[in-house]
């Protein structure tokens, strides 16, 4: 028994000695004087984990890379996006590089791809009002484009195209297997979109974005492959060079500790991956404001009696009050939402809300819509979404007289009281809601409700005492009593194909 206890003591002392020796080794290797975080990160276990990190990036390997040959600003903090200064009208090279690995995307090998380069707003507030901003720029700079391709300097680009309605975009085809460089020129400067207040305002940043597509089954370049962008500011000629020099001098005056918080300036700008620009080939049509009022179309007219509780000049372009079925429903799809915007005269915002469902649009507050669309259109869109009806300024009731019936003065009073016509059939009146107290509004609403071609109406008369015809003027309409009743007949004008309308 004693021998066993003695053996246990010997074993225990040996283990303690070995453990102390191992601790002593660790102390010598990582002593207080030699300890640092870099040594810890250099341990094999951390090296192994670090080497495995790129595996996740390999699955997201971008097929292309775009590099703009312009230096980045040194006055950008470490975790912020790079900022590049450009001179107005100067040509800058964007290298289109094939970044695919062996076997990636074999379907585009030996084929052309299409890229669209855009200059867009970086500020979200300006993105919401892009159409209005660009229209204002176009008005001040007629005939100019915001973005152009310098074709003589470009290499490898094929079939370059520009859309007259898209002043800020250019597109072209290119072969990823060949050297390709697109030289762009930005003609707008950052301060052109800054509200003028005191002078010397800070210019707004833009973005250069490149979207690349491949052919679909129909041969159209609509299948998205890759998108990337970078932040820029555009100055008047030589202004970018002066700004770059100023930033560099400011950084040189900072201490070494402060400089560590900023990125170094690089000779080129690498465009970083981003979401594709929310645009489609058909969106060009929706960006242009409507040039003709929809209420003049006979196909949109109706003879149904409208609900007197829903009438708003802001809701209807056709003069017929909006019913509950025409309100935007939360269950509306993105396509139905686009149709609703077009029908309610918000065509300039269809691209902006291209990915919005009915529920998405209805969740926006009044303040959101005013910030996005501006005060006028924002309030109008908010009222349309919430179905806020605006009371008409004047309501009149009209009924079309049958061509065969002739009314005597005594019979007219009976008809005005909702009587019957000569055949015993009761008169059916339609409500006409006037938001503008002018004669043309009366003619337009009559044409719409009774399916009369508006362009054929020459004059509108009111039958006065002894059967005389009095021209309906704006002043006469302003003196109509609310909820007045009228019969009207149409008289063809000889040799012109037009008609006169006579209110009785």
List its salient traits:
504 residues, 7-stranded mixed sheet, 6-stranded mixed sheet, disordered N terminus
Short structural summary:
With 504 residues, the protein is of the alpha+beta class. The protein is built from 16 helices and 18 strands.
Q: Can you put this structure into words, describing what you see?
A:
By secondary structure, the chain is α+β, with helices and mostly antiparallel strands. Helix content is 29%, strand content 23%. The chain is built from 16 helices and 18 strands. The chain has helices spanning 2-29, 37-41, 44-52, 54-59, 124-128, 130-140, 239-253, 256-259, 283-287, 334-343, 358-362, 366-373, 375-385, 409-416, 439-449, 474-478; strands at 64-68, 83-87, 91-98, 113-121, 147-149, 157-163, 166-174, 180-186, 206-215, 221-235, 269-270, 272-273, 394-400, 430-434, 457-463, 469-471, 484-492, 499-503. The strands form 3 sheets. Strands 2, 4, 6, 7, 9, 10 and 12 form a 7-stranded mixed β-sheet that branches. Helix 12 (366-373) crosses helix 13 (375-385). The protein starts with a helix and ends with a strand. Residues 1-5, 22-58, 280-325 and 404-418 have low confidence and may be disordered.
